[in-house]
Design a protein that fits this description.
Helix content: 40-55%
Shape: globular
Number of helices: 4
Strand content: 5-15%
Largest sheet: 2 strands, antiparallel
């Protein structure tokens, strides 16, 4: 069931809130790993998962989880989307 959900979300454009954006609505295309990270960050926020458990689950360091969680708190889902090594100053 989860895999079906992930595949469905991967093939759709997600309409998500973006904090700090005057438009408040932004369409994001997220990969399966990014969707998994988003779900994990939401579970951390809801206190259903610790950062240590999330690190094990995503096979990342606790430091990386802290960085992702901070990005999720400040930028919403957009903070978890990879820009493929693009310079952030050039992202419009």
């Amino acid at each position: 069931m989860l895999m079906f959900y992930l595949m469905l979300m991967h093939n759709l454009l997600l309409k998500l809130s973006h904090q700090g954006n005057t438009n408040m609505d932004e369409l994001l295309k997220m990969s399966n790993p990014e969707i998994t990270r988003l779900e994990t960050m939401q579970r951390i926020k809801e206190k259903r998962l610790t950062q240590i458990e999330a690190a094990r689950l995503l096979d990342l360091s606790v430091r990386q989880i802290k960085r992702l969680y901070r990005a999720h708190k400040t930028q919403g889902a957009a903070g978890l989307v990879s820009h493929g090594g693009v310079n952030p100053a050039t992202i419009a």
